[in-house]
Write a structure and sequence with these properties.
By secondary structure, the protein is α+β, with helices and mostly antiparallel strands. It has 13 helices and 22 strands. Strands 10, 11, 14, 15, 16, 17, 18, 21 and 22 form a nine-stranded antiparallel β-sheet that branches. The chain has a five-stranded parallel β-sheet with strand order 3-2-1-4-5, with helices on both faces. A hairpin with an 8-residue loop joins strand 7 and strand 8. Helix 1 runs parallel beside helix 10 and helix 6 crosses helix 9. The longest helix has 21 residues. It binds adenosine monophosphate and glycine. Glycine binds next to loops.
Amino acid sequence: MNVLLLGSGGREHALAWKLAQSPSCDRLYAAPGNPGIAEEATCVAIDMTDHAAVTAFCAANTIGLVVIGPEAPLVDGLADSLRAAGVPAFGPSKAAAQLEGSKGFTKDLCERANIPTGGYIRTTSLDQAVAALADYTAPYVLKADGLAAGKGVVIAATLEEAKAALSDMFGGGFGEAGAEVVIEEFLEGEEASFFALTDGTAIMPFGTAQDHKQVGEGDVGPNTGGMGAYSPAPVLTADLQARTVKEIIQPTVDTMRAEGMPYSGVLYAGLMLTKVGPQLIEYNCRFGDPECQVLMMRLQGDLVEIMHACAQGRLSEVDAGFADETALTVVMAANGYPGTPEKGGAIDLSASEEGGAKVFHAGTKRGDDGGLIANGGRVLNVTAKGANVTEAQANAYEAVDRVDFSSGFCRRDIGWKEVAREG
Ligand code: AMP
Ligand code: GLY
């Protein structure tokens, strides 16, 4: 079967690498792709916002499966357009992608389905939002309702900060995403991510992970898209995973189906492991980046077969299978990130993959002379395996030290919490 993968980040490089390994993959295309993806796929220029162009490409190239990497085209309904054209697509419909596209939608769903999550209100009025702060205590959790590239959440330490953040949100500081705001109860605990594939009915647990959102070692400084991750996350014990499926994933899938918005694709649940059990912080309608990279390092099953079955409502016919080993990825970012990253820095990866490590490209491109250069904030995801987090971490940093990227930096402590527990 010919497969088309959409996206251009480290997540999509990891997906491309795994899709290309599948015996059922004939030709793999990617749009727009990146230099790492180009080693696995034929990269083509298709505008993802032009649904007719995507479906025309699929018809012309007998595409049997489209894998949609990022959230924006899903929230924009690309999976619906593909299905209408008879092309199996991995990823939810526009209606189902509201689970990521609208935080208020998800909070309301949790209420209807009795899913454990923090108390909340949603409002489109600044006055009402400010008045509602009286019902909460610091720290205040304020969320722009819509897609905000991971930057739509403010945790305000004081009432004054909360009011200022609300003024900013309603004043357009978060664009369209902030026209509606959710104020939410602060949940205490450790965060972890749980992934599940679903075809609308069947549910296949698809691994756990923990990431490091903040730019600085020890989890300090501004938030980023993620500076590193590992899988599995031992903190999500078998018992907590079973509870997550029973109390969160299953009622979500069942309610979405019952309400005429069956969810098909990957459900990425951001969880807070509180004293009373796992609570939902948020849903994403796509794989995490860089969490996907560590999941793909461990996946043993045939990704084309799994995603095709998922897209066709036959998920119960396939198996995933993950290695027991831990995979850990370290993000190498360009100096300046998460502010304005320095572009154009030279990269040499020639020695980096010795010893079984894998370097996924996130923000790279080919310079005029064909050499690899930095072209984004998060540039590389250096990924390795080991018997536990401690070993995987050591292997990943050995590989990091073989990467030549002098205008970049990374955190040296990815996995620190788990390393301390293992020690
Ligand atoms: P989100 O984009 O919803 O994942 O939120 C970004 C980050 O804000 C999360 O990863 C948490 O660290 C934090 N956060 C969001 N909601 C809450 C909450 N209700 N309680 C505590 N922390 C939260
Ligand atoms: N690494 C966090 C995310 O992909 O949302």
